[in-house]
Amino acid sequence: MIAAKFLIWFLRFTGSGGTTLPGRLAAKIYPGILLRLSGKLNVILITGTNGKTTTGRIISRILEINDIPHLQNRSGANLKSGITTAFIEAASIRGNFSCIMAVIESDEAAFKTVAPLLSPKVIVVTNFFRDQLDRYGELLTTVQNVKTGISQCPNAVLVLNADDSLSSYIGREVPNKVIYYGIDGYNSSRSSADIAGADASNCIYCTEKYQYSARTYGHLGHFFCPGCGFKRPEASVACIGVNRLSLSGSDVALRFDEYEVNNSHSVQINLPGLYNVYNALAASACAKALGVPTGTIIDALGTFECGFGRMEIIEHEGRHIRLILIKNPTGFNQVIDYLFSEKKKMVIAFFINDNDADGTDISWLWDVDIELFRDLRNLVVRFYCGGIRAEDMAVRLKYAGIDPGLIFIEKNMKTIIEDSIRLLSEDETLFVLPTYTAMLEVRKLLGTEFNLKEFWK
Description:
The chain has helices at 2-13, 21-29, 33-38, 52-65, 80-90, 108-118, 133-136, 139-151, 165-173, 274-289, 294-303, 329-339, 390-399, 413-423, 436-450, and strands at 42-47, 70-72, 101-105, 122-125, 157-161, 178-183, 211-215, 221-224, 237-245, 250-255, 265-269, 310-316, 319-324, 346-351, 380-386, 407-409, 429-434. A hairpin with a 4-residue loop joins strand 9 (237-245) and strand 10 (250-255). The strands form 3 sheets. A 9-stranded mixed sheet has the order 2-3-1-4-5-6-9-10-11, with helices on both faces. A 6-stranded mixed sheet has the order 12-13-17-14-15-16, sandwiched between helices. It is built from 15 helices and 17 strands. The protein is of the alpha/beta class.
């Protein structure tokens, strides 16, 4: 404990995150440290492809409002070493805690190893989408990894996405108590034909193609298999109406309990994008599993602040800089949908890396609906391409039919900010879309430039 806590202090003092190495060191010295520390707390464990960090931060906000002290791996370091570091940082030298709960996100591939060590009280699964094939393999491999981890936690309450057939499959296959969440009051304006290209368009049981009575995006929606009858379960925590989706947030009607007499609540979600409605629902369902009052959940959703790199916004000389992580086709497509809410001029900067944490195979960029950017040609002043694979992103834009005169390869973030301030007028936005390791680099520069909170805080 002493060695690991000193290492955290030293790395933070020198400007490094100190989010993984201390945990790795501690596990070398004492392999059972995570099991020992986590056994002293009630653990909420979050996994899934997209939305883990944001969902965890919303849950954290709900606990704060209810005066429930807790620890969290806020930096997004979600492998075993990062999770161990979070517990060590919060513990005393003797391994005791001043909090009673832990909100932990886990990488999907690490989940089957981490879950039995943490013995979670609640497990939240956000969704399953194709992501980093070089790390995770095929999508069903990831689903089976998570199912294996859950099978070793028979006492955990599961919070599952009813609209995701892969999550719903897990709910049918394990004996755990399940709380489902989903969206009832929305149907995508996109053609139902594009389900053919979705990640899970065929039934996991009989391979028949799913039919949908309503869809949100990707393979999420009210699915039904005409072959074997597998269908979307009823969601007890649900969005039953979408009144407004804007750049600043969403106004929705939520149902927190199917048995409530007055079960429709007008809620403002202080996060933009339909995918963040799902994150808010996941956090709300988790809170209901914990017995948290509905009013405090509503307060938390309206006052939650974006985490680093997840819709984080910075104001500079009357312009806005918004940082949005991209890491797989479905997530990127949702960001593009979000950008269609913008009615003012904008600059878009992509930072694409291919380090291990990003996924070394960047062919996924060709599965993104980049062609949709052509419909924003009257609003996008310039596209910047940066990062290790800047040239690949520029080629993808060119093949999507984007005017080559709008595409600039520029790897210096400071130059991009300066140019964007010159190109944009007041109240217009520079959107920065980086992959994971590029986000850390960009966020570090922005943190220094604009005196932002460190990413682990």
